[in-house]
Amino acid sequence: MQCCVLPGRHRPEVTNRMAFALSDERIKEFAEILSRYPNKMAACIPVLHLCQEANDNWVSDEVTEYVAEKLELSAAHVKGVATFYSLFNREKPGKHQVWVCRTLSCALRGSEGIISHCEKRLGIKMGDTTPDGKITLRTAECLAACGTAPAMQVNKEYHENLTPESVDAVLDKLLAD
To answer: From CA 133, how far away is CA 147, in angstroms rounded?
Structure first.
């Protein structure tokens, strides 16, 4: 009896679809992460962060499959985690990610003006990436900088008490990189 295979499709047992793999150094980090959790499922979020960082800062389908296999979880479970949390990128972002806080404290202190300024300065809308691939612009629900609002996070660095001028200084550095 012959298996039905759709045109253009390969049998899973014939094709190794998992092109993503961690380096030896990151495999050690992976093992260290696993040692901190009571079971593999509990390590899903930190393992996804590790793999995202190792994959140009995004969770591709290959990363999802890799994490699912290594943690002995379903790909659907891992994809559910990756799509639920906004810090996991499901598309390749720009080299730098700029998150502007938009919650109440920041809004009361001018974050809407900062957002508009960023969009105008970069020529993109929130959620987009500059054509040169350098910056992805996003909003954050809270950056925990209420006392120094408005705030933005650039990659892993925080900038507070923002003004259009201070934002321009940060964006200038990112665009020059």
So the answer is: 32
Give me the tens of pLDDT residue by residue for the chain, a chain 177 residues long: 344 444 443 434 434 455 899 999 999 999 999 999 999 999 999 999 999 999 999 999 999 999 999 999 999 999 999 999 988 999 999 999 999 999 999 999 999 999 999 999 999 999 999 999 999 999 999 999 999 999 999 998 999 999 999 999 999 999 998
* Domain 96-176 belongs in CATH node 3.40.30.10: yes
* Gap between the Cα atoms of 96 and 80, Å rounded: 25
Query: Is the domain defined by 24-84 classed in CATH 1.10.10?
Result: yes
pTM, whole model, 2 decimals?
0.75
- The radius of gyration of the chain from alpha carbons, rounded to an integer in Å, stands at 20
| Per-residue tokens: 165 | 């001028």
Which positions ≥6 away from 57 have C-beta within 8 Å? 89, 92, 93, 97
Asked, as a colleague might, if the bond just before 12 is cis with ω within 30 of 0, I would say no
Domain ranges of the chain: 24-84, 96-176
Q: Long-range contacts of range 55-60, CB-CB < 8 Å, 24 or more positions apart?
A: 55/20, 56/92, 57/89, 57/92, 57/93, 57/97, 58/89, 58/90, 58/91, 58/92, 58/93, 59/88, 59/89, 59/90, 60/20, 60/92
